[in-house]
Amino acid sequence: MNPLLKLIAVEHGGVFSRSQALSCGYTHEQLRERLADGRWEKVRYGQYAERVELSLTSWDREIWLHRRLAFAVANSIASGTIALSHQTALVFHQVPLWGVDLTEVQVSRLDGRRGGPVAGVRHHRGGFAPTELIQVDGLTMATVSRALAETACTTSFEAAVVSADAVLRDHPIEPAAMLARIEFWPGSATAKAALAFADKRSESVGESRLRVLFHQQGLPEPLLQVEFGDADGFIGRVDFYFPEQGTVVEFDGLVKYAAGDRETLIREKLREDRLRALGLEVVRIVWADLKWPADVATRVRRGFARRAA
């Protein structure tokens, strides 16, 4: 890629248009050659990027591809006519997502044109207050609070809680003002419930999902991030504590011991032994368990029963 086109691509998240490539001195034949041999790849109609090999998890790759696609959409639509919104804006605000649709780029029209799906882009209509728009990476988009409100009105309760927990934890927002803003929006009932349930003490997507599971399976509301100690000093901070049932639930987002990390395994075992020595029951949940909510709830209730016995 020549320096001039490289500069344009850098300004647009690695993306450039056919017309931008031609204006930088490439011919139609050169463009076809680079697409054919894999040096360049098509992002969407008329929008291209250099091929990049990345070592990412499947979810991180999906986020990366969505972000690049959003740049391509913005590069193909007249400046000032759209703002990135909903979960697309949350991607740029680096808010954790789970259970949301990233197959379409979400935009809100600023020019009064009608909404609807067009060529992989979901166009929304809705007025913005001046304080609800911000520039991120050179693109106009909804602020994090506005984007959260939009997403929470159009996704499931669980997905909304995952992002709401993260926003409350990492961004200074006013939940009361957000709730007032969405009072009459379609889907506001789900959004209100999710925002009321959100807790900034949830430290990961998995913890947020597990909180929702407890709630939907009729378990008592646990305390979050409770610290325990004994005569030897600080034991640790646990993810969930059910005080009346004397039970601790820990969530492991990754299998820590898959690589045979014996020291980590021993450390965790000693930590659990110290918690049990305090008279507590300990239940450990991993990411794969979340596919079976009723089974998780049964395991936790069995922990309650063991402690009661």
TrEMBL record:
<protein>
    <submittedName>
        <fullName>Type IV toxin-antitoxin system AbiEi family antitoxin domain-containing protein</fullName>
    </submittedName>
</protein>
<dbReference type="InterPro" id="IPR011335">
    <property type="entry name" value="Restrct_endonuc-II-like"/>
</dbReference>
